[in-house]
# Entry
Amino acid sequence: MSRSSAIFVAGAGTEIGKTYVTAALTRRLRDAGRAVRTLKPLASGVPALGDPGFAESDTARLLAAQGLPVTSATVAACSPWRFAAPLSPDLAAAREGRSLALCDLVGWCRAEIAATPPGATLLIEGVGGLMSPVTPEATGLDWLEALGLPALLVSGSYLGAISHALTAIETLRAHGVPLLGIVVCESPKAPTPPETVAAAIVRHGGTPAHVIARDGACPETLADLL
# Structure
C-alpha cells in the first residue's frame, strides 16, 4: 500500500479538535513503528514559552505526541509563527505589529516537506477553519492549495457540524484538493453521538469518515489511510 509522505490536517471550523486528532494520529503512527514528524507552523492564542499555560497550547500537545521536550528549539521547529492573541493569524499578527506573507509560510513548509526522509510521514496542521484568514490576503485554503498536499478534514459533532463539514468537502473538491477522509472529533455536550454525525457526512458527502471520541484513541483505520 502506498503511503502519503505529507498530509495537511484541515478543519471544517475553529476549535473543533484538529490538534487532538493530529496528536492522536501522531501517537498511533509512532506506536506502529512508523517515522512521523508533526508541525503546526502557524498558531494563535499561544502563551509565552515561560508561561505555565504554554503546556496546554497546541504546540506543546503536538510535541508531547512526538515524545519531544518543550524547549525553545523544539517549539520554534514545530511552530515558527506563534501569536498571543486568540484571533485569526492575520489579526493576531497585526496586534503585535508583525506581519506574515503567504510565500514565507509556504516556502518554510516546502522546505520541511523536502527534508522528510523517504518512508516517513509529515503531518502539517492548519489553523482555524479551511477558510480562516492566515494573512491579510490569503486563507487556509490558499495555503493548502499552494502546498499541493492531500487533506485530512477534521469536523466536530456539534449542532451544525454536518453542514460545515459538507461545505468544506465541496470547497476542497471545487479546488481540486485530494481528500483522504474525514475525522469527526466528538464535541463536548453535542446533541448527537459523533457516529451519527459521521454517518450523515458519509451519506451526503461520499467520503470515508472516522470517529475519535473525546479522550479516545486514534482508530487504526485512520492511520492506515496515510
